[in-house]
Amino acid sequence: MTARLLSGTELAASVRADTTSRVAAAAAAGRVPRLTVVTATADEASAWYVRSIARAAKRTGIDCVVVDLGPQAAPSEIHERLAESSADPDVHGLMLQTPLPVGTSLAEAAQFIDPAKDVDGAAPASLGRLVAGLPAFAPATAAAVVALLDHHEVPLAGREVAIVGRSTVVGKPLAQLLLARDATVTLCHSRTRDLPAVTGRAEIVVAAVGRAGLLTSAHIRPGAVVVDVGTNPAEDGGLLGDVAPEVSEQAGALSPVPGGVGPVTTALLLRHAVEAAGW
Amino acid sequence: MTARLLSGTELAASVRADTTSRVAAAAAAGRVPRLTVVTATADEASAWYVRSIARAAKRTGIDCVVVDLGPQAAPSEIHERLAESSADPDVHGLMLQTPLPVGTSLAEAAQFIDPAKDVDGAAPASLGRLVAGLPAFAPATAAAVVALLDHHEVPLAGREVAIVGRSTVVGKPLAQLLLARDATVTLCHSRTRDLPAVTGRAEIVVAAVGRAGLLTSAHIRPGAVVVDVGTNPAEDGGLLGDVAPEVSEQAGALSPVPGGVGPVTTALLLRHAVEAAGW
């Protein structure tokens, strides 16, 4: 058996097309949505991702401003910059890129992002609204997983989903989104005792750990749907997922890396920016 | 086999004793912590619970003010009253009792509770801080489950826990607390397809649904730890848990209703009030 490919390319293109036409309509009325990305790292993968956001924003007509505070930025500098952009009426969407300098906590810093502009759902207030079932921006990656499954018509209600990775950026908010869709959700992590047993009984497995090839066919029950969220740098400069290539022989469907969740994430981030502008 | 009883009585008494001595110390310095409970219902069980909080508060020396807005209260009335108490420096702890009048959403209303006074962890901001790992008051019932398991030395790290019930008041915040303690957590609910299969593989099962006797021995694996959070009114005026009595023959340990999580919840609520006062 070879897994059906859950590509994100087509969905990302259709989200981008919709965003582009909304931005064009706003521009015709003299308004341009602005997305501010605050970054404070020398990390190569992060820089690559920020450049790809900026490029994609430009193509859709969104004004993307990258504020690079450098890897030595103090927490207070980052906090102030986020507070400033939160208060600036010309900034519609605001995100803080990770990783952050040692000594800066994402949770602490994200409190300075206005939830109304929090297009990557990082602020504790946004996470709380998600838990409470109030309207909120979900982290773009978590939203992309659900959007990708919907696009490929994978039913969620009543199904058993195992999420591997309990980060505040992906695992925990994704659990909220899937619960809201009536899935039975298990959150696994590095301290889970028998990971193959836990993931092996799930109908849908989402890998969001950040370790190349962590999930092998021993972790996946035949025919399961596997969503790979991992983006680990490969030696050749490419990307490796958290799911080992052999899993494609075992799974019923598999979202690839690259070309799965990634492009959808960027597309949703830009859609969020236009939604944040209210246009 | 008969299950070991995970009584909450002893733990509740010890938490109350600690709170009482902290309140006495504050009172000696002329300060009395105040807990304001806003209620807007004619529900009998709710009225009973509020009276028991008020009684327990009085015994520990906390000034408990019950604001009864009546079952006809409009959302705006409830919101205003919460905002007022949030702004009042003489109010240290503030909670909104459920159920609420039809048309009032707990999530919407709880936004008017200052997170610093939110002793029952209902505000979306408190829930978000919990998810993000920032200091926050957890809902007292969710905190009581973990405290009870700790008191009876039930290890959590690496263990499989199934929570039945995905409410914002218990199930979802409890999942966050258990994840922070390195448990592998599954959230089940009314749409879970094969509940006995899911709960039957867990080492710890928490029932927080609100349906008397929903969990039978078919749901519990022999020797598992079972925590009953249900408080369903019985015909004789007493309380029935979500766990059927027969489970005590199957489980390795069981927290009873009444006398398990309930008294610990009230005790923690009062401790939260003293912590909110900062004394």
From TrEMBL, chains A, B:
Domain called Tetrahydrofolate dehydrogenase/cyclohydrolase catalytic: residue spans: 6-120
GO biological process: L-histidine biosynthetic process; methionine biosynthetic process; purine nucleotide biosynthetic process; tetrahydrofolate interconversion
Pathway: One-carbon metabolism; tetrahydrofolate interconversion
Tetrahydrofolate dehydrogenase/cyclohydrolase NAD(P)-binding domain mapped to chain residues: 139-277
Catalytic activity: (6R)-5,10-methenyltetrahydrofolate + H2O = (6R)-10-formyltetrahydrofolate + H(+); (6R)-5,10-methylene-5,6,7,8-tetrahydrofolate + NADP(+) = (6R)-5,10-methenyltetrahydrofolate + NADPH
GO cellular component: cytosol
Annotated residues for binding of NADP(+): G165, R166, S167, T231
Enzyme Commission number(s): 1.5.1.5, 3.5.4.9
UniProt cross-references to CDD domains, sorted A to Z: NAD_bind_m-THF_DH_Cyclohyd (cd01080)
One Pfam family matching this protein: THF_DHG_CYH
Transmembrane segments: none
GO terms, molecular function: methenyltetrahydrofolate cyclohydrolase activity; methylenetetrahydrofolate dehydrogenase (NADP+) activity
Keywords: Amino-acid biosynthesis, Histidine biosynthesis, Hydrolase, Methionine biosynthesis, Multifunctional enzyme, NADP, One-carbon metabolism, Oxidoreductase, Purine biosynthesis
Family matches, as HAMAP family: THF_DHG_CYH
Family (UniProt): Belongs to the tetrahydrofolate dehydrogenase/cyclohydrolase family.
Self-association and partners: Homodimer.
Functional description taken from the UniProt entry: Catalyzes the oxidation of 5,10-methylenetetrahydrofolate to 5,10-methenyltetrahydrofolate and then the hydrolysis of 5,10-methenyltetrahydrofolate to 10-formyltetrahydrofolate.
Name by which UniProt lists this protein: Bifunctional protein FolD
Source organism of the structure: Actinoalloteichus fjordicus
Gene of this entry: folD
